[in-house]
Design goal:
By secondary structure, this protein is α/β, with parallel strands linked by helices. It has a domain of 95 residues. 29% of the residues lie in helices and 18% in strands. α4 runs antiparallel to α5, α8 packs parallel to α10 and α12 packs across α14. It starts with 7 loop residues before the first strand and ends in a 40-residue tail after the last strand. 43% of the residues are buried. It binds pyridoxal-5'-phosphate and iron/sulfur cluster (SF4).
Length: 444
């Protein structure tokens, strides 16, 4: 594979993208305006190999990476446009934009509350919500090869500092894991941890391969790099070193799960991504694929069916379908829960058993990952049938529960218990504990 030199596009230089001539002046203005509120970054792979410029602005990959006018409210749009046109002073501009961002629910599902303690130290780069799995956000991985316009991690990229979860000290992570023997999985996430160098990744991962960490069975890496920059595994300077690190993990007897973020079948179609998948698979790692369901990008059963089928052909395991979170540009991308379930069901029904490994649609809400099992009629009342795929309290996983049918609902907060109940079963008797308290007591 020929080396591809990485070229970043952002607000400063996006007007140099040659293909931009396919856009109207309105669309270009929108990139400028909305790009000052939501994170915006693209690269030459996304621009040259993924976007179909004959189909902009409706092209799914264009919409995935380039800001569009409707992603923020009309009032906010006019406000930012006015400030740009009138050369508003930097401080004032930033303050105003941050105000808009803060109203876009930058920290959904109480993410800031899942930060664990090591003695008296708050571990800001760690989240421990479910007993078996610890999430770690390497501070060098708090960026992505391009940004998804729907990203719920967007505050991490826009410099709202106190919301940055990143942590430098691998040492603290390792000490925390030694104290929590029920943890079997460490999930490196971000941003995209694969934006960090192989050396930095090794400093986090290699210590976990020693005897002391026998209880850690699976190392997971959540990454969009296969979709947005597959050259990370092919021709980047330390591509071979990354592959070597993956091999080391597998040789040490651990399961290496690469959780790839793919939103559309186009992302699975280039030579580069196919070769990168093959290289990663050859290390013995398993690739699992996941994506949110997004209006304008993949809100059709045929798209999902094609995506799962392609993943299976390339040796990846379809893993999760998520409902887009209630943050940032959600209003632009949201799909009603009923429609989400319908898309899942139809896609699921149209592929063979080997591609029916996907769990979803799933909402990562405050109490846990809530699976929309379906819609049912129970003695004349139409209800959503739900269950936890993951829960703060592991004893509650898998128990079915019911919410009143609501055709407009797009997120769990909007649902009410069915059958005239006042609370959902998990809201009773402190079953989920107090979010500010250490979760350990739920995990005895
Ligand atoms: C999704 C998620 C995990 C991993 O869940 P799995 O079902 O094991 O893939 C872990 N922690 C958090 C906070 C999550 O949202
Ligand atoms: S890949 Fe994930 S973390 Fe990166 S911009 Fe997209 S949604 Fe956000």
């Amino acid at each position: 594979m020929q080396e591809k030199k990485y070229k970043v596009y952002n607000l400063r230089n996006f007007k140099t993208i040659p293909q931009l001539s396919n856009l109207s002046q309105d669309d270009i203005e929108a990139i400028e305006v909305v790009g000052h509120v939501l994170p915006f970054k693209a690269n030459n792979y996304v621009v040259d190999e993924l976007i179909n410029w004959k189909n902009v602005p409706e092209d799914p990959i264009f919409t995935l990476t380039f800001p569009r006018r409707e992603m923020i409210s009309k009032t906010n749009y006019q406000n930012v446009l006015f400030m740009l046109q009138n050369n508003t002073a930097d401080d004032e501009f930033k303050a105003e934009v941050n105000k808009i961002r803060m109203r876009l629910n930058p920290n959904p599902a109480g993410q800031a509350q899942n930060v664990p303690m090591l003695g008296k130290i708050k571990l800001h780069g760690v989240q421990h919500k479910y007993r078996e799995t610890v999430l770690f956000f390497p501070s060098q991985g708090q960026t992505c090869h391009a940004y998804c316009t729907f990203c719920f991690r967007w505050p991490q990229f826009t410099g709202i500092n106190e919301l940055k979860f990143g942590m430098k000290e691998a040492d603290l992570l390792h000490r925390y894991l030694l104290q929590h023997k029920k943890v079997t999985d460490v999930l490196f996430t971000g941003g995209d941890p694969m934006t960090a160098t192989a050396k930095i990744l090794a400093s986090y991962i290699e210590p976990l391969l020693t005897k002391e960490f026998d209880h850690i069975r699976t190392i997971r890496i959540g990454s969009k790099s296969l979709a947005y920059w597959p050259y990370r595994y092919l021709t980047d300077k330390d591509a071979d070193e990354v592959i070597g690190l993956f091999e080391k993990v597998v040789k040490a007897g651990k399961h290496l799960a690469f959780q790839a973020h793919f939103n559309h079948p186009v992302e699975l179609s280039t030579d580069a991504v196919k070769q990168a998948i093959e290289r990663i698979k050859n290390t013995g790692a398993e690739i699992r694929a996941q994506s949110p369901l997004l209006r304008k990008i993949n809100n059709h059963p045929a798209i999902w069916a094609e995506m799962w089928q392609k993943q299976v052909e390339l040796g990846c395991v379809p893993y999760y379908m998520f409902v887009a979170r209630d943050t940032g540009s959600k209003a632009f991308f949201e799909v009603p829960l009923e429609r989400a379930w319908d898309i899942y069901r139809k896609a699921y029904a149209s592929v063979s058993g080997v591609a029916r490994t996907v769990r979803g649609p799933s909402m990562s809400a405050h109490p846990g990952k809530i699976h929309i099992v379906g819609i049912a009629d129970v003695k004349g009342e139409k209800v959503f049938v739900l269950r936890f795929l993951q829960c703060r309290n592991p004893n509650l996983v898998g128990i079915p529960f019911f919410a009143k049918y609501d055709p407009k609902a797009t997120w769990f907060d909007q649902l009410e218990p069915a059958f005239g109940e006042k609370e959902f079963f998990f809201e009773k008797d402190d079953l989920l504990g107090n979010a500010d308290r250490d979760n350990d007591f739920l995990w005895e």
